[in-house]
Amino acid sequence: MKKTFDAVRLRAQYPCLRREIEGKRPVYLDSACTALKPRRVAEGMRDFYLNRGGCGGKRSANLFSRGVEALAVQARQEVADFIGAGSADEIVFTSGTTEAANLLAHAFPYRGRRREVVLTDLEHNSILLPFCEAARRGDVVLRICPTREGRLDLDRLAGMVSARTALVAMTRSSNVFGGALPAAEAARIAHRQGACLFVDDAQYLSSHREDVRAADVDFAAFSAHKLGGPFGVGVLYGKRRLLNRLGRYKVGGGTVRSVGWDGKLPLPDYLGAPAGLEAGVPNFGGIVGLMEAVRFLRDIPEDGLRRHIAGLAARAAEGLSRRPAVEVLGRPEDLRQGAIVSFKPAHAGFSPIDFNLYLNHELRGHFIAVRVGEHCAHLAHRGLGAPATVRLSFFAYSLASEVDLFLDALDGYLSSVRRGRA
Length: 422
Known about the structure:
The protein is of the alpha/beta class. The protein has two domains: 7-30 and 301-421, Alpha-Beta Complex (Aspartate Aminotransferase, domain 1); 41-298, Type I PLP-dependent aspartate aminotransferase-like (Major domain) (Aspartate Aminotransferase, domain 2, 3-Layer(aba) Sandwich), CATH 3.40.640.10. The protein is built from 15 helices and 15 strands. Strands 2-8-7-6-5-3-4 form a seven-stranded mixed beta sheet, with helices on both faces. A four-stranded antiparallel beta sheet has the order 11-12-15-14. It has a two-stranded parallel sheet with strand order 1-13. It is globular, with a radius of gyration of 23 Å.
């Protein structure tokens, strides 16, 4: 029997949605910051720590450690299957998207004239800043491809990619403008010039299924906590031949076959990917939590999830567009492709900071969690003419009624602003 998507039934898996804080129930519209955790993830990690918690990674050979290593191998394969990777060896466990980007920025083999990195101005600081620091060190020349209304102009990107380009890095879904950027088309542009494509999937996988082979991306990164998994664990995907060309970024236990001696210095014999890129004892508990989050999402019908979140984004964008005191960022047809709707004030008395306080403290019976600020995407905010924007973001457990509660709260806040100016 074909599974159907039911957000109301799904919410039963999230205990914190039933928890009251200061006597108020939560309306959680901040899933782009972090997704709430289903019971399955917490229980899987609890079982690991209470009943299995030995040391894997081929460090020990006792029955505890063998069981942990088997779990890690299984998790690597399930993550590979989830994103369409060709091999489990193409999955490198990291502490999150940020570490994955730092690893790639530091370890990518920039050579000769091919030292340019092209990024969009939509990038999260976790992608932008590692390459910015590489440019400050003189390792690369950084080029920023401007966008408009959250859209990537592929012709403009093609004009910036050349025989000097080593890497193109782009978000798959902007954490300010939402939507979905075209990875396959960007990959073709990069590959025509012999460059690689790195995509930030952190905001994409919550409402889409990525297929890295179909899109032909060379590297991709994401964090478990954006999928309802634990904090402190993530993934760098890379085509195997490319992972094995990366230099050394973080080294230590678990990255070598042996260490020799030439009379002056130790001679490490480094392992290939992924082990050679995973220094130190892995976060086995986090890896188990990531596996459980992937399993949870895999059990949700993809087409139903996509329709549900597209409907929420459209409902929010349409409702906001009817309120002249705010300006929605991005185009309606693009917003339906993502899980984020942001807006900026178009009214002199509207303060995003005050509005956030209003949502948390002035509503009766509930509070509404959204994100206010620049969302770790300062470049994307430079041309907006507003020091802060308000962001709504959705996940599988989000409801249309919650969007309506937010719009009602916005009306209440705007009324209070008008009364204050009278």
